[in-house]
Design brief:
Layout: H1 2-10, E1 16-17, E2 31-36, E3 39-44, E4 52-53, H2 65-84, H3 90-110, H4 115-135, H5 139-149, H6 154-168, H7 173-185, H8 196-204, H9 207-210, H10 219-229
Parallel strand pairs: 1-4
Antiparallel strand pairs: 2-3
Helix pairs in contact: 2-3, 2-4, 2-6, 3-4, 5-6, 5-8, 6-7, 6-10, 8-10
Length: about 230
């Protein structure tokens, strides 16, 4: 969808977005995240907003289990980050809260291809997309970009980085514990391999996410966060 949004915007064409995963919320945002010369790059422009968004959960019924899990965790991060970010407001917080509850209640069932759970995940993804599309995301998403640059799927990178990012931001400990349980239950990774100093340098260039984070972030902070989840090589 992000490629389609960018191309359609550049060519001044109608944008009709139909998601086939329950996760990105891209059908209701004015962002397009693409890989440009091997690195993820976000394009933010009101013209990228879809003219029409059609969310049909039946189109998500054939998602592989791992994709259900990883895209669902991405939606979870959208909800949490849009709730805690500096640019939140009452509407985005309300959407984020409801999206979080839906994901907490349904993601574990969705990976069994339960139709009702997938319906609820589609709704949660839409609501989380509406939330972060208006408020933005924070540290976790900044931390995931270097992982995705190295080939780790975005949702899996989010699963690795969301808990330590929330811990750094002093988010609710019980919620962080529940998120860790969900990630474990759906079978997503929690560690990665990489040069943490090199990756931290990439993160520090991401002013868009870092400026929206509720707590100031330094290079040393990012290195410390990565150190908690990097595997010994």
């Amino acid at each position: 969808m992000d490629v389609a949004k960018k191309v359609a915007t550049d060519l001044v064409l109608l944008k009709i977005m139909i998601p086939t995963t329950a996760g990105t919320g891209s059908e209701v945002t004015h962002e397009s995240v693409l890989k440009v010369e091997g690195e993820k790059r976000a394009f933010v422009d009101e013209r990228l907003t879809a003219d029409v968004a059609i969310v049909d959960p039946s189109l998500m019924a054939t998602m592989p289990t791992r994709l259900i899990a990883s895209s669902g965790i991405d939606a979870l991060a959208h909800a949490i980050e849009s709730y805690e970010c500096k640019n939140n407001n009452e509407l985005t917080r309300s959407l984020a809260r409801r999206a979080y509850v839906l994901i907490e209640d349904n993601l574990r069932k969705a990976i069994t291809h339960d139709k009702n759970a997938i319906f609820n995940m589609a709704l949660a993804s839409l609501m989380a997309g509406m939330a972060f599309g208006n408020s933005g995301t924070t540290l976790c998403h900044a931390l995931t970009y270097p992982l995705s640059n190295k080939g780790i799927p975005h949702g899996e990178a989010v699963a690795i980085m969301l808990p330590p990012a929330l811990e750094f931001n002093n988010f609710n400990k019980e919620v962080i514990l529940e998120i860790r349980k969900i990630i474990k239950d759906v079978g997503l990774p929690t560690r990665f391999k990489g040069d943490i100093h090199e990756m931290a340098a990439v993160v520090m260039r991401d002013e868009r996410h870092l400026s929206n984070n509720p707590r100031k972030v330094t290079f040393e902070d990012v290195v410390s966060i990565y150190r908690k989840v990097v595997e010994d090589t």
